[in-house]
Amino acid sequence: MAFDFEFLLKVILVVILGGVIGYEREIRHRPAGFRTHILVALGAMLITVVSTQFFQNADPSRIAAGIITGIGFLGAGAIIGARERIIGLTTAATLWVVAAVGLAIGASLYVEAIIVAVLVFIVLEMSSIFGIKTKG
After folding, report:
1. E strand or H helix at 87, and its extent?
2. Nearest 10 degrees: CA dihedral of 80, 85, 88, 92?
3. Residue 106: how many CB atoms within 10 A of its CB?
4. Which of 29, 38, 80, 120 has the lowest tally of Cβ within 10 angstroms?
5. Alpha helices in 1-136 (DSSP H)
6. Distance (Å, rounded) from C-alpha 67 to C-alpha 104?
7. Cα separation of 77 and 34, whole Å?
8. Model confidence, pTM
9. What are the extents of the domains in the chain?
């Protein structure tokens, strides 16, 4: 069995994109940071690859639905309610979108995943550019 260079590309790309988004969360001291975002992206990518390559008769939309639903539970854990305010919503949203980026890479939608990851990073950085105080 020959080495799968496309899989290596997927792993490298998902680590970079998940890492960039996670790094932004990390430097802002948010509940889920660098490692968590990489792991979520990697997991979503691997589930997508395994599901599409080994379960070819399966409905691909069910794979995506399962990943996104599962990540919703993880994101819920990042949301904290304290004294009439809720924090962690942005972090939960980044976990959700980084899973979608991993899913896209797993489905070989590289350009789409890169565009979305770059846009997510820009949106996250806009708060510091414009001096907006965020809570999550």
Report:
1. strand 85-87
2. 90
3. 28
4. 29
5. 5-27, 34-54, 60-78, 89-106, 110-129
6. 12
7. 16
8. 0.86
9. 5-129
CB contact set of 123 (below 8 Å; sequence gap of 6+): none
Buried b (16+ CB within 10 A) or exposed e, 65-102: eebeeebeebbeebbeeeeeeebbebbbbbbbbbbbbb
3-state class (DSSP) for residue 52: helix
Measured CA to CA, the distance from residue 23 to residue 103 in angstroms comes to 20
Element (H, E) at 31: none
- C-alpha to C-alpha distance for 116 and 80, rounded to whole angstroms: 26
Contact 48, 67 (CB under 8 A): yes
